[in-house]
Automatic annotation (TrEMBL):
Its EC number is 5.6.2.4. Belongs to the helicase family. RecG subfamily. SMART domains: DEXDc, HELICc. GO terms for molecular function: DNA helicase activity; hydrolase activity. NCBIfam families: PRK10917.1-3, PRK10917.2-2, recG. Keywords: ATP-binding, DNA damage, DNA recombination, DNA repair, DNA-binding, Helicase, Hydrolase, Isomerase, Nucleotide-binding. It holds the Pfam family DEAD. CDD domains: DEXHc_RecG, RecG_wedge_OBF. The gene is recG. This is ATP-dependent DNA helicase RecG.
């Protein structure tokens, strides 16, 4: 029996090498291939170039009126030139680096060319010669790679559609298709890959967007239901006295927001249902102590806890912080990262497996196959947007009934909450600890950089340390941005020998990064020039000033995250944004960061100004990778799809209803959902 879950290896012409190349594009199954959608369409309908605008892509038909000329230059570079008569006009056509096309061009031949029209030169820069393949006037253009060309993707999709068309049964229940005027699954796939008109493609994409959101929402609801099942092993019977004693020993008073969130978490832990909670808190709002309460509650019930951080530096900081917090409480802490030596790891693993270790702090190393826990009662994920759903689940599966607490300092607007955290309960710390001074933020243009440097000098003279942040590591010809190496050299020339300058960037080894941060924390150097690797990093209480070059190249929420590296001590903190935005939106973004220290406001603003794109200034691992749907641009479709998924899953035995049978089957094949 053929199935959409079949490997692409079953298709003719797909050998072992091609399977690997397709896998790199995210194409593993027939379903992946059929839902590998075009990124755009080229209109191949024939046009008169004299009526086209400059720079427009056009398809033209004309007569070759002279011998083509092929010239080579540079290494493996070539140019093919010939003249084409279209109506009464003569156009020069050139093809770069396609020397084999010379065999297809002969005087007096009629050719159909697709290319870019240059009005000033009366020239067409050819992209392809169509002729025989000009059956369809809309050509689907796919994301391709060196190993897998456009033509290969197209032919494989065509073959898969012909072979598996009968498997494209309707997944969306008939009542929903009628209600929202959606196309059948088969027609959706056909009209996306082989559209007869732009309107047909548009209708198909509308259905594909609904389907993508709907299937994701179904998956989320099923996950949520799974987490809601009664599970006596998930219950944490914590010792209230231990928590009270810990709270009373703290050198500060918890904020009302922290106490409220701790109450929500402890209520979850006390129930016979696995906790699946997200803790959102702005930079410096005190999430760590909340996590400490949850961890201590778990340990007091004689179960283990684990906390996973995205970097070795942050994991080590957590291990040190928890060691200080839990001093005198007989809590055994182990630090397990990729940098842990083989000998230390061998000694540590039996202690984790036996339960001798109460709290394991680490990175991805925590869920490696050979790491076994005695009874993992709580998994805490720090900076959870750095981890994908599968990584979070991998850690959770290290226990039989593990409670999950995910934490993020990246505020996510409610518009994205459905997609990112639909299966989680959300707690928000919306209050900063008393006494913490807001960071004073200023935006200046690059012409005033020297003024900013003088300000940095004053701060250094006062005994403070400073961060200098830049988007690039080394000079790039393509992008005119400041780079860390050049800035490092410049600041050394300005500040040394009076003040030492250090350099930190992503291409350094983990050990080098750790050493650099330790030196900075110990005040061995006073200025740290860094790329965004410090966005999530070690607290340096003495660092009170940050200068960010090319600030308009970062997301607003990311700028807010970076800014949160300063202001960790009692001194007034400052952040200076250096940017020359090219348009009004760029200027508005800079004003927004300078004018607000509220991360939730800034993330919503970023969403409004930039679209979903990149809320944290980088690809979020936790963000579902929708192929055609956009959670911001298509928010109405997302909302409706989510509501319909909730209605369906709210019914008992929903998957046994006749109109839902194919939906349940498809979810099982493609989403690897286990209903057992």
């Amino acid at each position: 029996m053929t199935s959409l879950g079949d490997s692409v290896a079953v298709l003719k012409g797909v050998g072992a090498k091609r399977v690997v190349a397709l896998n790199k594009l995210g194409i593993n199954t027939i379903n992946d291939l059929l839902t590998y959608f075009p990124r755009r369409y080229d209109d191949l309908s024939i046009k008169d170039p004299s009526k086209a605008i400059d720079g427009q892509k056009v398809t033209v038909r004309g007569l070759v009126i002279a011998e083509p000329m092929l010239t080579y230059f540079g290494r493996k570079k070539s140019r093919l030139i010939f003249r084409l008569k279209i109506h009464d006009n003569i156009y020069t056509v050139s093809f770069f680096n396609q020397p084999w096309l010379k065999k297809e061009v002969h005087p007096n031949d009629e050719l159909i060319i697709f290319g870019t029209y240059n009005r000033g030169r009366n020239q067409i820069q050819g992209m392809k010669i169509l002729n025989n393949q000009h059956a369809n006037s809309f050509d689907s253009i796919y994301p391709a790679s060196k190993e897998v060309k456009q033509t290969t993707i197209k032919s494989l999709i065509k073959l898969a559609f012909q072979t598996y068309r009968h498997q494209l049964v309707d997944i969306i229940p008939e009542s929903l298709r009628a209600k929202y005027r959606l196309e059948s699954f088969s027609n959706t796939i056909k009209n996306i890959h082989f559209p007869e008109s732009p309107q047909a493609a548009q209708r198909a994409f509308r259905t594909a967007k609904f389907m993508e959101f709907f299937l994701f929402a179904m998956k989320v609801q099923i996950l949520k239901e799974t987490h809601r099942r009664t599970d006596d092993h998930a219950k944490i019977e914590y010792q209230k006295g231990t928590l009270t004693a810990f709270r009373e020993k703290l050198p500060f008073k918890l904020t009302d927001a922290q106490q409220k969130v701790i109450g929500e978490i402890l209520r979850d832990l006390a129930r016979p249902i696995q906790m699946n909670r997200l803790l959102q808190g702005d930079v410096g709002s005190g999430k760590t102590v909340v996590a400490a309460m949850a961890i201590l509650a778990t340990i007091s019930a004689h179960k283990q806890a684990a906390i996973m951080a995205p970097t070795e530096i942050l994991a080590e900081q957590h291990a040190n912080n928890f060691a200080k917090m839990f001093a005198g409480l007989n809590v055994n802490i182990a630090l397990l990262t990729g940098d842990t030596s083989a000998a230390a790891r061998r000694a540590m693993l039996p202690s984790i497996q036996s339960g001798e270790v109460d709290l394991v702090v680490g990175t991805h190393a925590l869920f490696q196959e050979d790491v076994r826990y005695a009874e993992l009662g709580l998994a805490v994920i720090d900076e959870q947007h750095r981890f994908g759903v599968n990584q979070r689940q991998a850690l959770r599966k290290k226990g039989t009934s593990t409670n999950m607490l995910a934490m993020t300092a990246t505020p996510i607007p409610r518009t994205l909450a459905i997609t990112m955290y639909g299966d989680m309960d959300v707690s928000i710390i919306n209050q900063l600890p008393t006494g913490r001074k807001p960071i004073k933020t200023t935006w200046i243009t690059s012409s005033r950089t020297n003024t900013a440097i003088r300000f940095l000098k004053n701060q250094l003279d006062s005994g403070n340390q400073v961060y200098v942040v830049t988007p690039l590591i080394e000079e790039s010809e393509a992008v005119d941005m400041k780079n860390a190496v050049a800035i490092f050299e410049r600041f050394k020339a300005i500040f040394e020998p009076q003040f030492k300058v250090g350099l930190l960037h992503g291409q350094m080894s983990n050990q080098e990064k750790d050493d650099t941060m330790k030196h900075f924390k110990n005040n061995d150097f006073q200025v740290l020039v860094a790329t965004t690797v410090i966005e999530v990093g070690v607290d340096v209480a003495n660092a009170n000033t940050m200068l960010i070059f090319d600030a308009d190249h970062f997301g607003l929420a990311q700028l807010h995250q970076l800014r949160g590296r300063v202001g960790r001590g009692s001194t007034q903190a400052y952040c200076i944004l250096v940017a020359d935005p090219k348009n009004d939106i760029g200027k508005e973004r800079m004003k927004a960061v300078a004018g607000s220290t509220n991360g939730f406001f800034l993330s919503q603003k970023d969403l409004e100004l930039r679209g979903q794109g990149d809320i944290t200034g980088q690809k979020q691992s936790g963000m579902p990778d929708f192929k055609v749907a956009d959670p911001v641009g298509d928010l109405n479709i997302l909302t409706v799809a989510n509501q319909e998924a909730q209605k369906i899953t709210a019914e008992n035995h929903w998957k046994n209803k006749p109109e839902n049978v194919q939906l349940a089957k498809y979810l099982q094949i493609t989403q690897t959902i286990n209903y057992d």
